[in-house]
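::Encoded backbone::
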Amino acid sequence: MTRTLRFAAAAVALLVTACKEGPTAGQLAVNLTTPNSDDGAIQFTAEATAPATITSVGSSCAGCKLFVVKVNDNQYKGILTGSISAGTLFRLGASDTKGVYKVNINAVASRSYASRNNLTGYSATLVP
């Protein structure tokens, strides 16, 4: 086999392997880091970078209520209420778990309805 033919065969094998991998749909857990122990409401925005899309938002933390609105296939906005603590808040359905997704914390209130003016220390990470 000539060197050019071997190179072409290797390139075709690589392309076939890459095409078979494709997107993998699944769920991503949204985990909260918070500096407080008395959070009562969180307003958030969940976003996917195209071509990935968000297929659902659900399964809120125990004792919590989740309210969401679908802006488009790449964005949901929502509010989670209840006795919120650090850990898994809810799950995102993802069209491709290898895609780029993010959840931004826009506002937080304590259980006594006081708005948190400083969101330092709050973050949401996504875990497969």
